[in-house]
Amino acid sequence: MEERVAERLHGALGPLGFEVHAFKVGWYNAVLQPAFHLPYPDDTLAFVVLSTPSMFDKALKPFVNKERLKIIRDPVDQCVSHHLSSVKEIFPDQKVDVMFDYEILPSRRPKFLAQTAAHVAGAAYYYQRKDVKLDPWGEKKIFGVCIHPKYGGWFAIRGLLLFPDVQVPLLEQSAPVDCVSAEEKRTELLELFNFHWQDGRYRDIIEAKERYSEDQKTYFSTPPAERFRLLGLTHFTE
After folding, report:
1. Cβ within 8 Å of residue 20, ≥6 positions away
2. Which UniProt keywords are present, listed alphabetically (predicted)?
3. Is the pTM of this model over 0.85?
4. How far is CA 176 from CA 65, 66, 119, 141, 150, in A?
5. 43 Cβ contact list (under 8 Å, min separation 6)
6. Rounded to an integer, what distance in angstroms lies between the CA atom of residue 160 and that of residue 109?
7. pLDDT higher for 224 or 53?
8. Other CB atoms within 10 Å distance of the CB of residue 97
9. Cα–chain-centroid distance for residue 96?
10. How many Cβ atoms from other residues are within 10 Å of residue 51's Cβ?
11. What is the tens place of the pLDDT at every residue in 120-131?
12. Are 118 and 50 in contact (CB under 8 A)?
C-alpha cells in the first residue's frame, strides 16, 4: 500500500519540484516529548514533503501566473497549500490530512516539527548540538539544521501528508544520509546556521548538486512584504 501511495504522490508532486518521503507516525512520536506528538496511531502512514530548487520555476512561477488575482498572502505558502491540498483529489477513497510548515497551534507551538519529520523519514539529516562532541558554545542557544545529501541546505520542508486509514506496520525505516560526518564540519555548519544564516553559507556545507537560482536567492533574501514586486504582483505592494 505504501508503495502505491508513494508512486501516486511522486507522479503528482515530482514534476512540480517536490520530494516526498514516507514515514510512520510512531517513528516521529518516539523521538519527541508527548506535547509534540502527532495524534495518530503509531503505524499510520505519513509523508514529509520537501521543495527542491526546481520548485521555484516548476511550481511557483506557473502558479503565480495562473492565480495572479487570487494571491492574498505569502505566494510560496499559497502555492504549496494549493498543490498539497490538491493531492486529495488523486485519493478520492482515502482520507488525507495535510499539515503545513507555517501552521501553528493555539498554544503557539508549530503543528509539527519539520526537521524531525525530515530526519525520521530519511529525507535529510537533522544536525543538532548533541551531534558535536566538543561543544564550543557554552551558554548560547544553538538551533539545529537539516542538510540534504543532494541539495545541501538548498531546499525547504513544506508539509506533511497523513493517511489516517492506512496502517503500515511492516514499513522499514531508512536512516538519513550523514553527509556532514566530520566533527569540524558539523561545528562549522551549526556556527554558520546560528550566527551567519543570512549569508546562506551554511547551505553549501557540502557540494550541492543543485542550488537555488539567482532569481530564487534574491526572492528569498528579500523581505516578505517586498516579494510580491519581484513576482510582478505590484498591486499588492501599494
Report:
1. 6, 9, 10, 13, 14, 47, 48, 49, 50, 161
2. Cobalamin, Cobalt, Cytoplasm, FAD, Flavoprotein, FMN, NADP, Oxidoreductase
3. yes
4. 36, 36, 6, 25, 12
5. 24, 25, 26, 167, 168, 169, 171
6. 16
7. 53
8. 15
9. 18
10. 26
11. 999 999 999 999
12. yes
Beta bridge partners of 167: 44
**Cell 558554545, residue located:** 137
> What is the C-alpha R_g of the chain?
18
pLDDT tier, 234 (very low <50, low <70, confident <90, very high otherwise): low
AA letter at 9? L
pLDDT digits (tens, 9 = 90+) for 40-51: 999 999 999 999
The helix-helix angle for 2-13 and 75-86 (nearest 10°) equals: 140
pLDDT at 236 over 60: no
The alpha-helical segments, DSSP class H, found in 44-197 are 55, 61-67, 75-86, 114-120, 183-195
Phi–psi pair at 53, nearest 5 degrees? -55, -30
For residue 123, how many other CB atoms are within 10 A of its CB? 27
